[in-house]
């Protein structure tokens, strides 16, 4: 092969690697796969190099990929700055849409609102995609703003999509408003949109949570369809739902469609389902089937580790961790999360903290937010302000700051200790207290006067 062809071949493959790492499955790929894969930070440098050499023609999707990568690695502000350098010939709507997606992914309400406003101010099309992203953000952070977004959609004649209705259904379900949830389904059907199986799964989950077993079972039968063997992809949606219902026979029946020639994702949900039903032996059997067909990996081991953690089976958990080490598994954030949960479930919070600290020091990979949060919640429940603050400090690079403060303040409340300067810290982090946080701030206010104190002066 000629030198020029070799160079072109290498550059093409490097470009493909960059795109792979920032794809929807990027986190899974880079976190716990063999070390031959690039980490996201290295990919960011790689994409800069490719662009600077001007030997690869960047298309719109390449620029959008680059924005996505910068937002994930260097932050939203840097991604927005890069966006301004992209040629005017590229669709600005696609670029801002990519940036908005990352704002929502990082739960940055302020930045998402700025980007959404910019879309409107620049007279770019405000699509149902952008509105759905804002609805998703408000569902997590500020339910009152959902009505404003729906009004805007109505004013701008933006028709709701299936995903719009799914967000609204989930919002009502989380608020325990089952009647309101059913009304949205009726409105959805009136608008000519039939709930797809993912939306039905959301409905079923909330019916189960509300104790409406008959309603949930009827919906699951509808979701299953008439020929499950032909529509086997439905199995991985049905297995966890039947497990949530406590239906051992139904989980067993569904699993039989998969058992003779199981698929990877079916095995993962089956392990979780058997675990929920307290059938640890069955979960282990599925795991061993996976190991024979594919191989032992961090991903499938982490699922079984969660089962052991939920059943406080510390010895089995430790044996599996040793087995992973002996097999040369690349242990990353998913596995750390499972190990931390394993120790927390048996009350060994300090051990969980120690494991996570060592993992973070020895690896360039970033632990999951939920892993730190698990430990922070445990220290807070004990009223251990000192260790809660230490974990909080280690979480400073994550974006769900309001939730972090809520958990931190629980430690002060439990310890009956004042949190001096906490309002200044919130202001510095640009966090506007919600109702829960505002109530907590009153309780930890060191200068609040007790109503009884005046009687004793």
From TrEMBL:
<dbReference type="InterPro" id="IPR002885">
    <property type="entry name" value="PPR_rpt"/>
</dbReference>
<dbReference type="GO" id="GO:0003729">
    <property type="term" value="F:mRNA binding"/>
</dbReference>
<dbReference type="InterPro" id="IPR033443">
    <property type="entry name" value="PROP1-like_PPR_dom"/>
</dbReference>
<feature type="repeat" description="PPR">
    <location>
        <begin position="161"/>
        <end position="195"/>
    </location>
</feature>
<feature type="repeat" description="PPR">
    <location>
        <begin position="332"/>
        <end position="367"/>
    </location>
</feature>
<dbReference type="Pfam" id="PF17177">
    <property type="entry name" value="PPR_long"/>
</dbReference>
<dbReference type="InterPro" id="IPR011990">
    <property type="entry name" value="TPR-like_helical_dom_sf"/>
</dbReference>
<keyword id="KW-0496">Mitochondrion</keyword>
<feature type="domain" description="PROP1-like PPR">
    <location>
        <begin position="95"/>
        <end position="253"/>
    </location>
</feature>
<dbReference type="GO" id="GO:0005739">
    <property type="term" value="C:mitochondrion"/>
</dbReference>
<keyword id="KW-0809">Transit peptide</keyword>
<protein>
    <recommendedName>
        <fullName>PROP1-like PPR domain-containing protein</fullName>
    </recommendedName>
</protein>
<keyword id="KW-0677">Repeat</keyword>
<dbReference type="Pfam" id="PF01535">
    <property type="entry name" value="PPR"/>
</dbReference>
<comment type="similarity">
    <text>Belongs to the PPR family. P subfamily.</text>
</comment>
């Amino acid at each position: 092969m000629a030198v020029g062809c070799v160079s072109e071949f290498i550059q093409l493959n490097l470009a493909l690697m960059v795109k792979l790492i920032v794809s929807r499955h990027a986190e899974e790929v880079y976190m716990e796969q063999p070390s031959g894969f690039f980490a996201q930070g290295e990919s960011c440098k790689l994409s800069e190099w490719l662009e600077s050499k001007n030997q690869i023609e960047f298309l719109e999707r390449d620029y959008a990929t680059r924005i996505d990568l910068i937002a994930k690695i260097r932050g939203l502000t840097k991604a927005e700055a890069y966006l301004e350098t992209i040629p005017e010939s590229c669709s600005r709507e696609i670029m801002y849409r990519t940036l908005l997606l990352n704002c929502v992914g990082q739960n940055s309400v302020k930045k998402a609102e700025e980007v959404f406003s910019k879309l409107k101010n620049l007279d770019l099309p405000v699509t149902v995609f952008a509105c759905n992203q804002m609805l998703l953000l408000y569902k997590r952070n500020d339910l009152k703003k959902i009505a404003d977004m729906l009004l805007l959609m109505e004013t701008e004649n933006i028709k709701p999509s299936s995903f719009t209705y799914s967000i609204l259904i989930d919002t009502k379900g989380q608020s325990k408003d089952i009647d309101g949830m059913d009304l949205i389904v009726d409105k959805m059907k009136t608008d000519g949109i039939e709930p797809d199986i993912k939306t039905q799964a959301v409905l079923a989950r909330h019916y189960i949570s509300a104790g409406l077993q008959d309603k949930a079972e009827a919906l699951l039968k509808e979701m299953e369809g008439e020929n499950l063997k032909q529509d086997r992809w439905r199995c991985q949606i049905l297995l966890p739902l039947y497990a949530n219902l406590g239906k051992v026979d139904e989980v067993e029946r569904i699993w039989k469609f998969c058992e003779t020639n199981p698929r990877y994702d079916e095995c993962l949900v089956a392990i979780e389902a058997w675990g929920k039903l307290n059938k640890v032996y069955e979960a282990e059997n599925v795991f061993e089937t996976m190991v024979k067909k594919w191989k032992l990996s961090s991903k499938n081991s982490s699922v079984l580790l969660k089962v052991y953690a939920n059943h406080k089976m510390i010895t089995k958990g430790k044996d599996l961790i040793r087995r992973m080490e002996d097999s040369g598994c690349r242990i990353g954030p998913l596995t750390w999360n499972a190990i931390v949960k394993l120790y927390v479930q048996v009350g060994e919070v300090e051990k969980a903290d120690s494991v996570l600290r060592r993992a973070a020091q020895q690896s360039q990979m970033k632990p999951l937010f939920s892993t730190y949060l698990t430990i922070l919640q445990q220290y807070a429940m004990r009223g251990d302000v000192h260790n809660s603050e230490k974990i909080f400090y280690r979480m400073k690079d994550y974006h769900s700051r309001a939730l972090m403060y809520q958990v931190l303040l629980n430690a002060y409340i439990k310890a009956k200790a004042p949190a001096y300067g906490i309002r200044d810290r919130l202001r510095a982090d640009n966090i506007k207290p919600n109702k829960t946080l505002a109530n907590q701030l009153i309780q930890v206010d060191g200068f609040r006067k007790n109503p009884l104190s005046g009687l004793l002066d």
